Amino acid sequence: MIANPFVKQLLASFLDLLPILAVVVVFQIFVVQQPIPDLANLILGTLFVVLGLTLFVRGLELSLFPVGEAMAYAFARKGSLFWLLLFAFCLGFGTTVAEPALIAIANEAARIASQAGVIAATEPAQESYAFGLRISVALSVGFAILLGVLRIIKGWPLYYLIIGGYCGVIIITPFAPPEIIGIAYDSGGVTTSTITVPLVTALGVGLASAIKGRNPLIDGFGLIAFASLTPMVFVMAYGLLR
Predict the structure, then answer these.
(1) What is the rounded distance in angstroms from the CA atom of residue 168 to the CA atom of residue 236?
(2) Mean pLDDT of the 54-78 span
(3) Which tens digit of pLDDT belongs to each residue from 173-184?
(4) Which of 12, 35, 72, 144 is the most exposed place for a label (fewest CB within 10 A)?
(5) Phi, psi at residue 215, to the nearest 5°?
(6) Are 153 and 167 in contact (CB under 8 A)?
(7) Is the dihedral of CA 148, 151, 157, 162 positive or negative?
(8) Which pTM does this prediction carry?
(9) Which has the closest alpha carbon to 188: 144, 234, 232, 148?
């Protein structure tokens, strides 16, 4: 029995990574039938990944989850719906607008759009297009977290929001420019970032725990699902308005 939490997490991270390593090694040796290139770098990189994953998970457990839950409790005790909803919106917006994956997708989309003649083939036009995409996604996530927090407070069933959201996606898709649809559908994935997910999950669970009559397991989760849905609608709306 391992008593040290860090060592225990280190072992758990290695076991989580082991299936990926097994797949790579098996296919490299038995399918590709070639020796593994740079074996030393592979081993060293694996050790770094295990260590990094361990530190990241421990950091979430020690900082982001407690902070998110503590702030949810504090806002619930304060009893101010306005400040709670404002905090939820700012949390969703702030953790998304600087997300590296979103920046990469927005820049790549702007580059391809300029080559396709959708926007002017100039650097300012590309920067403006990419910035607009980033703001659209960040606004959508902020709105989703705000609405998700309101759902927890009011006790609305989650599937109402999910079904309604996907109905909105289906309705707006035929009217959106064809070149923006794929970008819109992919943009939902960037909300599942390493910062957004822990903070938003902690906020939802903490809020559901602080409100009498709410079940943390039933009401505390689901914010990320809705946050992954709304960017599709917002980005297609952005394509219609440009």
Answers:
(1) 11
(2) 75
(3) 999 888 888 888
(4) 35
(5) -100, 120
(6) no
(7) negative
(8) 0.77
(9) 232
